[in-house]
Structures
1.
Amino acid sequence: MSSADDRFPTDAAFRAAVDTALSALLEQIDVLDADIDAGLMPGNLNVVFEHDRSTFVLSQQTPTHELWLSANLRAWHFRRRGTAWTERDTGEDMLGLLSGLFAQKIGQPVRFVAP
């Protein structure tokens, strides 16, 4: 459930917030000591884990003002609440979830932080 305060005033404001979030994630992924190929395209962050060729994709969904994550044959849908992106159904923090998923993939602790 979302309140009116959680909505972005415009699609442009949403896209700007997504760009900030994805760029910050890419910077943090790039410094991990792991065989990862990560790339940013407008509104999308694609991550390929070289050891098993699996892929994580975070993509903006402008009509719903959500970020969607596809990873490990699952999907999550994040909305911004306050300054954090949280899963719309469970309330789970996106950065915490991503930290756990990456840690499982690369076999070492990962802690992503907000920009």
2.
Amino acid sequence: MIFLRLAGILILIGIIVLAIFYIVTKNKKYLQLIRLVLNYVIYASVIILLIYFLFRIIHT
């Protein structure tokens, strides 16, 4: 569980840094990077949740 929290904090820090870069430079590539990171995070979290629930079902 600690690894998931650490990963979440690192992802949040990365998104905040990209948002600050966008605010400072007004460069649209940072918005695209934020969207890309969020897409990967959503896909990874769905896969992790599916595996977690699958293991919970199999274990009982």
3.
Amino acid sequence: MSEMIVSELNSFNNYRYESNTKRIVNLKGASNADMDEFLAIAHILDSNYIKYKFTTNIDIRILGKI
């Protein structure tokens, strides 16, 4: 993933991109997840044709480019 996309992902308050696991981690837990940030992250990934899936705790796992 490009540094620009990683920088965008790390700009959110309640989510953090972890490059070693290729996950975007929800820092607040599933019951307190910020859905606006979650949807904004999904939009960034979709706009850049990045394949992903949702995991437990409303985390996002990066699978690769489409």
